[in-house]
Specification:
By secondary structure, the protein is of the alpha/beta class. The chain is built from eleven helices and nine strands.
C-alpha cells in the first residue's frame, strides 16, 4: 500500500480549529478513512472536542457524540448495545480519546468495557499531556518532560497503557504514530474486522505542548520510532509482533540516539547530558524486554 492508494473520500473536513502541525488531526484523518462512513465517533473532553468546530457546525463527517471526560467507553458500550438490539452489524463504534481521557480519567470505564468485551475500537491519541487545558502532566507524560505542572521535568515514567490493555486479554491491541499513516491505516483496517474490544494507542506529536516548530511534526514522530522510544507493534489474540518499522530496532545499532529526538523539543531543553543518557538506558532496557516478547503468546500460562 502507498499513500496514493488510500481512499480519496475525506471524513475530516476543511475548517478544523486545530493548531498548525497538529498530529492529532493527521492521525484522525487517516483513522476515519479506514473506518469509513458507517462509523459513530465518541469523543470525551479534550483537544478533539474543540478541533471539530462550534455547534451547529462540525468538521467531522460522521455522527459524533461528545461526552464527559470519564464516560467515553461507557457511552460507547451503550451505543454498541443499542445497535446490537436493533440488529445493526455494519457500524463501527469508535472512541477517540486523549491520554488524559484514557490513562487517567477514563481508565475505569475503559477497563470495564474491555472486561465486558464491548464491541468497539478504542483509540488513545496520545500527545502526552492535558494539552487543551494548559499542558498539564498526565500519567502518559514521559519521564523528564516539562509541563506546566512539572516545570523541572516529570519524575515518573510513562504509563504503559497498551500492555495494561493486554492484561484484559482483548483480541486486538496496537501502537501507531501519526507520522506513519500507512501503518496506522492498515492497523485500523485489521481492527475493524475483529469483534470485541480493540485498542489502538497512537503517538501524536503536539507543537504547542512539545515546543517545536509546527512543520517538524512528521519528523518528530518518525524520530520517536527510529530512536526506539515509541515501538510499533500489534498484539493479536495474545501474540505480540513488532511492526515492520520497529522490528529492525531489535539490533541496537539500528536505533538513532534518543538525543536526536529530545534535543529538538523545548519540553526536554532542561535535560542534562547525564539525564539524556539515563533515558537512553531506559530505552535499551525496554528493548531487551520487547526482544523477548516478539512473536510470543503473552497469554500463555496466564
Amino acid at each position: 500500500m502507498s499513500v496514493m492508494s488510500l481512499p480519496k473520500e475525506e471524513f475530516m473536513l476543511a475548517g478544523t480549529a486545530a493548531c498548525p502541525g497538529c498530529g492529532l488531526t493527521l492521525a484522525l484523518r487517516h483513522v476515519l478513512k479506514a473506518l469509513g462512513s458507517r462509523t459513530i465517533l465518541v469523543v470525551p473532553a479534550g483537544c478533539t472536542s474543540v478541533i471539530q468546530g462550534i455547534a451547529p457546525n462540525s468538521s467531522f463527517a460522521v455522527p459524533t457524540l461528545n461526552i464527559a471526560f470519564a464516560a467515553s467507553a461507557a457511552a460507547a458500550s451503550g451505543i454498541a448495545s443499542g445497535l446490537d438490539v436493533k440488529g445493526v452489524t455494519d457500524v463501527n463504534v469508535a472512541v477517540w480519546a486523549g491520554d488524559g481521557g484514557t490513562a487517567d480519567i477514563g481508565i475505569q470505564a475503559l477497563s470495564g468495557a474491555a472486561e465486558r468485551m464491548t464491541d468497539m475500537i478504542y483509540f488513545c491519541c496520545d500527545n502526552e499531556s492535558y494539552m487543551n487545558t494548559g499542558i498539564q502532566r498526565s500519567s502518559s507524560t514521559p519521564a523528564g518532560a516539562w509541563t506546566t505542572t512539572t516545570p523541572t521535568g516529570k519524575r515518573e515514567p510513562k504509563k504503559d497503557m497498551p500492555l495494561i490493555m493486554a492484561a484484559h486479554k482483548i483480541p486486538y491491541i496496537a501502537t501507531a504514530c501519526s507520522s506513519y499513516p500507512i501503518d496506522l491505516y492498515s492497523k485500523v483496517e485489521r481492527a475493524k474486522k475483529i469483534k470485541g474490544t480493540r485498542y489502538i494507542h497512537i503517538l501524536s506529536p503536539c507543537p504547542t505542548g512539545w515546543r517545536y516548530p509546527s512543520e517538524k511534526t512528521v519528523k518528530i514522530g518518525r524520530l520517536a520510532v527510529e530512536t526506539g522510544l515509541w515501538p510499533l507493534y500489534e498484539i493479536r489474540d495474545g501474540r505480540f509482533t513488532l511492526s515492520t518499522q520497529s522490528k529492525p530496532l531489535m539490533d541496537k545499532s539500528k536505533r538513532k540516539p534518543v538525543k536526536d529526538y529530545l534535543e529538538i523539543q523545548g519540553r526536554f531543553s532542561h535535560l542534562t547530558a547525564a539525564e539524556i543518557e539515563n533515558i537512553q538506558g531506559m530505552v535499551s532496557e525496554m528493548w531487551d524486554r520487547l526482544s523477548l516478547m516478539d512473536n510470543r503468546d503473552l497469554f500463555q500460562g496466564w
